[in-house]
Amino acid sequence: MRFGAHVGMGGGVFNAVTNAINIGCNAFALFLKSPRRWESPAISAEDAETFKELCKKHNYNPRTDILPHGSYFINMANPDEEKWQKSFDCLLDDLKRCEQLDIGLYNFHPGSHLGIADTASHETAENAGVRRLADGLNRAIKETNFVRVVVENMAGHGNYVCGNLDDFHTLFKLLNDPKRVGVCIDTCHAFAAGYNLNNEEEWNGFWKEFEEKVGIENLAALHMNDSMAPLGANRDLHQKLGWGFLGLECFRLLANDKRLEGIPLILETPLDGNDEGHYGEEIKLLEWLVGKEKDDPEFIAKSEEFQKLGFKSREEQAAKFEKKKTVKRKNEGKADISNMMKGRAKKAKKGD
């Protein structure tokens, strides 16, 4: 199991390697440039060489063990051509940085269709967004040599594409070279989108659906995060392992699932300040979970301990979710009444 974490690269991209080895990572993620800027300085040839040397020294294979995360500004589902092109240029710059560093994987968020359907093709907004994403991936693959572009699942909020496995099914049918594209499943995002992963039956059910709709060969990585918000809340709120609604059982199942061997399994849980030492503790926890049974007394005690630590945040988010659902039901009720009154008025007018 390649357990690791997203680490900092301040002072030079090569520092990410040292930061990763210091907390016991068997794989790691990093930003290749500022995730909140369109343009950043190029990586120097000297820094790139130092990065490769450190990877070799610490036994990281850049082609399989490293999963850079793309800019948050990229939106490859954007219906605005000019903005789509700006996103594509940013994506392509990231991919070329990967190949400069001999990195074989690259992960990014697919983006939002902004609720705009394609009237010319008669596509829904969602399908049009997935098609634009596929167009960008097909073009990016042509302009690069080997890096595998990994699309992350979303929490099902707003107009983001790939919040469900059906979107990934559609996406892979539109790809010219599907072997150059992969999927990264974020456990928090999946849970937020309505996929329950906190018990064995539903954990296996999710991966069965993934196999049927996407293909397990297309799974390239995982982001390991508990969820501060309840199932189906569509909130991207990461929590420390075992503290959230997924609970430690999800990560016990993860740590013992052979389907996940050999791919980067990356922590993105909240840090206290910028102390990446917490990731080292969670990596040790994941390694401790390997071979653990559900009824192991130590596992049960640890699960209960973590649930107590996360109780307050779960309670707060559950209350917010219930309030949101109540408001939604009221609004839907008002809309139903309004539509009914309009219908009656229309009938009365015809009667006159």
What does this 3D model show about the protein?
There is one protein chain. This protein has two domains: 2-308, TIM Barrel, CATH 3.20.20; 310-352. Helices cover 47% and strands 11% of the residues. It contains eleven helices and nine strands. It has helices at residues 15-22, 45-57, 81-100, 125-142, 165-173, 187-192, 200-213, 247-255, 277-289, 297-309, 311-351; strands spanning 2-6, 27-29, 105-108, 148-152, 181-186, 219-224, 226-227, 238-239, 264-267. The strands form two sheets. A seven-stranded parallel β-sheet has the order 2-1-9-6-5-4-3. Helix 4 (125-142) packs across helix 5 (165-173). The model has no long low-confidence stretch (mean pLDDT 93).
SSE blueprint:
Layout (H helix, E strand, L loop, with lengths): L1 E5 L8 H8 L4 E3 L15 H13 L23 H20 L4 E4 L16 H18 L5 E5 L12 H9 L7 E6 H6 L7 H14 L5 E6 L1 E2 L10 E2 L7 H9 L8 E4 L9 H13 L7 H13 L1 H41 L1
Parallel strand pairs: 1-2, 1-9, 3-4, 4-5, 5-6, 6-9
Antiparallel strand pairs: 7-8
Helix pairs in contact: 4-5
